[in-house]
Structure formats: C-alpha cells, structure tokens
Design goal:
The chain is built from twelve helices and ten strands. The chain has 282 residues and is an alpha/beta fold. The protein has two domains: 215 residues, Purple Acid Phosphatase, chain A, domain 2; 47 residues, no CATH class. A five-stranded mixed sheet has the order 3-2-1-9-10. A five-stranded mixed sheet has the order 4-5-6-8-7, with helices on one face. Helix 8 runs antiparallel to helix 10. The protein is globular. It starts with a strand and ends with a helix.
Length: 282
C-alpha cells in the first residue's frame, strides 16, 4: 500500500503541477491533500480545480486547513469589510473573491481522514494536529506533546501506526512510541530554507509503515511572477509582500510580523502598510 501526502500548496500552481507529475509516476494507491490548498498565494481557483479534477478522476482526497478556514470567514455575516480587522484579512478576501464567493467546496472538507493498512493498522491524516488546524507539530516537540496531538486511540485501543500532517511547512519523520509521525512539509511554500517543493511518500511494508520526504525543483520564477499577474500582490494587501518573500526565501515572515505588529495594527496604532515597511526595515 502506498500513500502520497501533499500539504500546504498555498495556491502555488507550478509547484502543485510538479509534485502531481512526480506522484503520478510513483503510482500510489491514495493521495491525500492535507489542507491549505488555497490562500497565501496567487492561484487558488486553479489549484482547487486541479485537485478537484484529480479527486473525480483518481480519488484524491482533500482535508480542511486553517487557510481554508480563513477564506470561509468571509461568508460570516459579521465578517469585517473595512478597518484594521479587514486589512489583516485582505489576502484571504482576495482569495474569497477569486473563488467568486462560492466556497461550498471548502466548507465540505473533512477535518481528518483515517485509512486502514491491510492488517487494519490505522493511518491517520489531518492538517496540523487532532487538537486543531493551527496546532503545529515540530521535530523539536517532546514525545508527550506529540502523543497529545496525535489524539486518542481508536476503539481497539491502538494508536495510529502512522500520523501525517503539514501546517508548519517544515518536514520531519519521527517514531513516537509505536506511531510514525510524519510532517509532509509544504508543496508551495517551505519554511526550512529549501525552496524545493516537499511532499511525503508512505509505504506499508507488511507489518509497518515507512516514510520518505521527497523534494522537487519546480518553476519558482513562474510562481513568483504569478503574484503580479493575478493581481494578488496589489490587491492582497501589504502582507502579500511578505508572502512573496516567503516564497522566494523559504523562510517564514508572517508569523514574525504577527508577533511584533498584529496587535498594534488592530489597535489602530499604525497602519498595515506602516507595519510592513517597519518590519522589512528591521
């Protein structure tokens, strides 16, 4: 049994196409797209259509990620349409508008998926952890922390044989007790300093799972240009500038900006543009 796990595409169509081509040559039994397919990048409609086509043709399965939730926020009657709270979400509003406001496909995505190996050992998949779509799993985390994030055992009192996530954009493989914990990294926006796309290959070897992280080069220049050609850089708000830097450098920017400036922007102490300019000058 072979399973490919793609996560955190973030609307990077060239990276998705390159990974899909590699996956199709590998010929897995199942492909899981583990959340954050859309948003934080310029080509959400194209990436969604791409995966939906594969889902219909070959059974690819999709999961909910926090960035799908960010887009779904704009369907709420109390969603901000102006002011600092809206400026903070302008990029996801751009995505919402790209999708024509029709986000039913995102709303229907499951939080987790469970598959069985031939001897009924569970393979469990979710975006970040079983505690939530923003609860990241890291290589440095303690075994006790990771076990909490894996979640409870099934009714047979067995923890999953493999537990696979994304979200942090930093791939790793660790054995925790009897569970192989795999972070597939990010297809479209890695944060480990390596700009190559990342995905995970899982293989059942008769009585246990094995995992490998695959890294692939793709047309990064085309992905970079898409920020301008789609209007995302101009219409996605000042934070789109930081997202483009994340793409180019394979290093997180939004988290660091948020730690320093988000509260100040929401309090009206400074504008979003001012905060990004100051952040870039640090």
């Amino acid at each position: 049994m072979k399973i490919a796990v793609l996560s955190d595409v973030h609307a990077n169509l060239p990276a998705l196409e390159a990974v899909a081509e590699h996956v199709e040559r590998w010929r897995p039994d199942q492909v899981i797209v583990a959340g954050d397919l859309v948003n934080r990048g310029p080509r959400s409609p194209e990436c969604l259509r791409f995966v939906q086509h594969r889902a219909a043709a070959t059974g690819w399965q999709m999961l909910l990620g926090n960035h799908e939730e960010y887009v779904l926020y704009h369907t709420r009657p109390d969603a901000a349409r102006s002011g600092p709270a809206f400026e903070l979400r302008r990029a996801s509003y751009f995505t919402f508008c790209q999708l024509g406001g029709d986000v039913r496909a995102l709303a229907d995505l499951p939080f987790s998926i469970s598959l069985d190996a031939p001897d009924h050992h569970e393979a469990r998949f979710t975006h970040a952890s079983m505690r939530g779509t923003r609860d990241g799993m890291y290589r440095r985390s303690s075994d006790a922390e990771l076990l909490e994030q894996i979640g409870p055992p099934r009714c047979d009192n067995r923890l999953p044989a493999v537990f696979c996530v994304g979200h942090t954009h930093m791939p790793f493989i660790r054995l925790v007790n009897q569970t192989l914990v795999v972070n597939a990294g990010s297809v479209g926006m890695p944060f480990d300093g390596d700009t190559r796309a990342s995905y995970a290959q899982l293989v059942w070897r008769g009585d246990h799972w094995q995992a490998e992280i695959i890294r692939l080069t793709y047309d990064l220049a085309r992905a970079d240009q898409d920020f301008e050609e789609t209007g995302f850089l101009e219409q996605g708000g000042p934070l789109a500038r930081l997202m483009r830097i994340e793409l180019r450098t394979a290093r997180s920017q939004l988290y660091q900006w948020g730690q320093r400036f988000e509260a100040l922007v929401l309090a009206g102490v400074m504008t979003m543009e001012e905060s990004v300019e100051e952040f870039l000058g640090m």
